[in-house]
Amino acid sequence: MKTxxxxxxxxxxxxxxxxxxxxxxxxxxIGGILDxxxxxxxxxxxxxETAAKMxxxxxxxxxxxxxxxxxxxxxxxxxxxxxxxxxxxxxxxxVEMIYxxxxxxxxxxxxxxxxxxxxxxxxxxxxxIRLTNEACGPYTIHYVFDTYGQANVTGLAAVKSGLDSWFFxxxxxxxxxxxxxxxxxxxTKTGGKVLGSVRHPLNTSDFSSFLLQAQASKAKVIGLANAxxxxxxxxxxxxxxxxxxxxxxxxxxxxxxTDIDSIGLETxxxxxxxxxxxxxxxxxxxxxxxxxxxxxxxxxxxxxxGVYSSVTHYxxxxxAAGTTDAAAVIKVMKETPINDFFAKNGKIREDGRMIHxxxxxEVKKPSESKGRWDDYKLLATVPGNEAFQSLEQSRxxxxxx
Length: 401
What we know:
The chain is about 45% helix and about 20% strand. The chain is of the alpha/beta class. It folds into 2 domains: about 200 residues, Rossmann fold (3-Layer(aba) Sandwich), CATH 3.40.50; about 160 residues, Response regulator (Rossmann fold, 3-Layer(aba) Sandwich). Strands 2-3-1-4-5-6 form a 6-stranded mixed β-sheet, with helices on both faces. Strands 8-7-9-10 form a 4-stranded parallel β-sheet, sandwiched between helices. It has a 3-stranded antiparallel β-sheet with strand order 11-14-15. Strand 12 and strand 13 form a beta hairpin.
């Protein structure tokens, strides 16, 4: 009896020691650098932080005996602030992975900091193709969309339907410039013409002078190479000025379901747009979106859905690799297909581009909608290898040619 009790006592001590050791391990921290308060806040912002927390909770809250902690910071759409936040997260706060980094200029800045420290950074909200071209890195992942994919899906469909002359309203920073450049290439390659462009400051409230130039061009399409609040304001003001009633089409080259919700179907109806995700695609997208909406009171954008998917993929890779070492984790991430509500047979290429299907949607008429958030009808599913830039076209130094 004494021997049995001694064995039980020893086992209990061992369990307590193991539990204490697990508690002594520092948390695994992942950090979001987000637009929490400006023109992209609805696209990413608090919703991206919520999506990351949902992913962590669904994963079980810990990995390798370490609690997982989600951090978030507001970059205020300032590239220098984004770089400083990334530096502080990685150097001082012990963050192992950075997610989202909404907006391209802020993403390019944070990406350089992560690259210098050999840390994984996953982009969900930014779109610049530079992130997988010149600015690519061995631990950089561009997950949701990019300017090439958006241009390829929307621009190609528009020109093929006869909308073959374009004028661009372009946000004057990396994302807008790349989106205009990539869409112009698609338009001209498909037999269309670019009649001109005008650049506007980021987060502007008055588009009147820019829209008048676009109207005067007589282009069939006014391409909006901007996003978020800029896209919303430009579409609303184009309607107010009677531009769309005059026969010109406004094409948002990057729009999200939250943008359409803000604009309203009366004004947005008929718009063609490319998205990586929509809440009402299938049972899986609806199930995730219902849970997300219970927390946020709004449907998820593709960027926010991508945060959940990418954080989950990262945590699974950490578990499989048995370490948080970036080289070991990224190897597993690139070797493992992504199959969830966001992507089917998704794959992260050597340049960091996550290849997955893209979707071409048309915004419904008010009479076609069953209620709020029922905004899109699916026109086409574009396979990832057709939507995104090929490796042969890549300017990423990591790509072997």
